[in-house]
């Protein structure tokens, strides 16, 4: 059997136009042996979930610096549930206040990796928590 | 369907069974390969072509056709990972249930088109997508492989990327059914077109032609009064060279018309039938090789292999004799 690869969808939802962080994490995940489907800027939750379905993504990583995380994450989680994608690992990065993290955890966001967290942490977290195929 | 493609990428018995089940439903889709160097605008062009097939542009396609897109990007030989970024150019296509886009990494298939990609095409074909675009970086074996797998192959070039006659790979002329000079609003577009025209003229002049049923070399004099058919008709399809500016949606309808015209040509000239047979033969060959190797290697203990490698290293044995020894020892037939 061919080696199974972890497929990670990296998206920047909403209107925020700063993608340097997302690109850095994309490259790091590639260097860690993962296949990164980089969808870029201005993604709507609908586009993200559509891509996750077509690409059979194991992980969705959303980078949000605009402060709209409390709207965007719930919308994505809802669409994932509606489409039966319960075992996709959802993580977030960017500017997300610590105070909001518990609420995000409650709706199913598995991990938040804000500035200051190392890339190794995120990579390790993915490898530990991704669903088995 | 997405999970099926994943299963196929990971190979295994279940994937094989699924492929066996869906194979009877394949053979309907028009497979269009799109290849070219990085930076030529492949994804942008595919995005525009898909829009027209879905009923956009001047509506040369009516009724709209469903579109599958497989975008292939290289796997890093060092990390085994990949960045699959072609969807970025296709955001306009989202939300349309008549389009399915899948990004695939080459996963180390020696520069050519991965077996998994050819199988993923079958999934989209069997699922009923009428046109399936396969987009790959034209490097090494990939161009040849995609030309074998696709019915129609589009080769994209862009001016300013060193596309003078020396830089254009000779093999491209044999592979391309359609040439698209993208970013044609840039300087050098005309030279790129002319360079391609020259290459096509050279190629057609040197190609052996059938004249009254007898194969003749290029040098033989061809007396036009002898034949009912003009040389261009005897030689069949001459790839059109089309200028596009995909970013501004310019020149796209002409490419779509050329794609449709090529399919019509394939059907009328019976070339489709012949190409299909060649494709199947090539695929069967690949699979046989793969399966035989797998079967053989599954019976060989790693220790045995290591021992042989050691002996070859010590010059006690040459690799050919080693291979023969291994095959005879295993007697896998």
Task: Write structural notes for this entry.
The complex is a heterodimer of chains A (133) and B (333). With 133 residues, chain A is an alpha/beta fold. Helix content of chain A is 41%, strand content 23%. Chain A has five helices and five strands; from the N terminus they run E-H-E-H-E-H-E-H-E-H. In chain A, strands 2-1-3-4-5 form a five-stranded parallel sheet, with helices on both faces. In chain A, helix 2 crosses helix 3. Chain B is of the alpha/beta class and 333 residues long. Chain B is built from twelve helices and ten strands. In chain B, a hairpin with a 2-residue loop joins strand 8 (209-211) and strand 9. The longest helix of chain B has 29 residues, at 271-299.
Query: How do the strands of the widest beta sheet of chain B line up side by side?
Result: 4-2-5-1-6-7-10
Please identify which CATH superfamily of the largest domain in chain B we are dealing with. P-loop containing nucleotide triphosphate hydrolases
CATH class descriptor of the largest domain in chain B: Alpha Beta
Task: Kindly state the number of beta strands of chain B.
Answer: 10
Cα(first) to Cα(last) distance of chain A is 13 Å
Please report which band the strand proportion of chain B falls in: under 5%, 5-15%, 15-25%, 25-35%, 35-45% or over 45%.
15-25%
Discrete helix count of chain A: 5
Radius of gyration of chain B from CA coordinates: 23 Å
* CATH A-level architecture of chain A: 3-Layer(aba) Sandwich
The biggest chain-chain interface is: A-B, 32 and 30 residues
CATH topology of the largest domain in chain B: Rossmann fold
CATH architecture of the largest domain in chain B: 3-Layer(aba) Sandwich
State the shape of chain B: globular
CATH homologous superfamily label of chain A? Cobalamin-binding domain
* Helical coverage of chain B, percent range: 40-55%
Number of DSSP helical runs of chain B: 12
CATH-defined fold name of chain A:
Rossmann fold
Are there runs of chain A of 5+ residues with pLDDT below 50, and where?
none
The quaternary state of the protein chains shown equals: heterodimer
């Amino acid at each position: 059997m061919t080696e199974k690869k972890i497929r990670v969808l990296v998206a920047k939802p909403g209107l925020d136009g700063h993608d340097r962080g997302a690109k850095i994490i994309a490259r790091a995940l590639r260097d860690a042996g993962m296949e990164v489907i980089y969808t870029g800027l201005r993604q709507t939750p609908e586009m993200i979930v559509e891509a996750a379905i077509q690409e059979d993504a194991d992980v969705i990583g959303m980078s949000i610096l605009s402060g709209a995380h409390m709207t965007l994450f719930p919308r994505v989680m809802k669409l994932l549930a509606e489409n039966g994608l319960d075992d996709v690992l959802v993580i977030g990065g960017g500017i997300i206040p610590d105070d909001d993290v518990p609420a995000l955890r409650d709706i199913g966001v598995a991990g938040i990796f804000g500035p200051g967290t190392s890339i190794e942490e995120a990579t390790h977290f993915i490898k530990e928590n991704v669903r088995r195929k | 369907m997405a999970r099926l493609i994943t299963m196929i990428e990971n190979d295994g018995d279940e994937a094989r069974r699924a492929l066996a089940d869906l194979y009877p439903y394949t053979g309907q889709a028009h497979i269009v390969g799109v290849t070219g160097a990085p930076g030529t605008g492949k994804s942008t062009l595919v995005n525009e072509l898909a829009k027209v097939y879905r009923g956009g542009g001047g509506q040369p396609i009516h009724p709209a056709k469903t579109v599958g897109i497989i975008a292939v990007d290289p796997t890093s030989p060092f990390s085994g990972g990949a960045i699959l970024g072609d969807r970025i150019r296709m955001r306009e296509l989202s939300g349309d249930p008549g389009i399915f886009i899948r990004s695939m990494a080459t996963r180390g298939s020696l520069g050519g088109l991965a077996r998994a990609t050819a199988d993923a095409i079958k999934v989209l074909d069997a699922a009923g997508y009428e046109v399936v675009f396969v987009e790959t970086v034209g490097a090494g074996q990939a161009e040849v492989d995609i030309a074998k797998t696709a019915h129609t192959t589009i080769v994209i070039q862009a001016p300013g990327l060193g596309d003078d006659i020396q830089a254009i790979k000779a093999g491209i002329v044999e592979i391309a059914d359609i040439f698209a000079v993208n970013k044609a609003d840039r300087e050098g577009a005309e030279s790129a077109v002319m360079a391609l025209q020259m290459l096509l003229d050279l190629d057609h002049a040197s190609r052996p032609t059938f004249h009254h049923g007898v194969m003749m070399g290029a040098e033989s004099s061809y007396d036009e009064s002898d034949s009912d058919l003009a040389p261009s008709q005897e030689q069949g399809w001459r790839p059109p060279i089309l200028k596009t500016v995909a970013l501004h949606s310019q020149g796209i309808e002409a490419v779509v018309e050329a794609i449709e015209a090529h399919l019509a040509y394939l059907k009328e000239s019976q070339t489709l039938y012949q190409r299909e047979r060649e494709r199947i033969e090539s695929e069967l060959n690949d699979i046989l090789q793969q399966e035989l190797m797998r079967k053989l290697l599954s019976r060989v203990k790693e220790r045995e292999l290591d021992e042989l490698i050691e002996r070859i290293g010590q010059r006690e044995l040459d690799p050919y004799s080693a291979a023969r020894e291994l095959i005879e020892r295993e007697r896998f037939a």
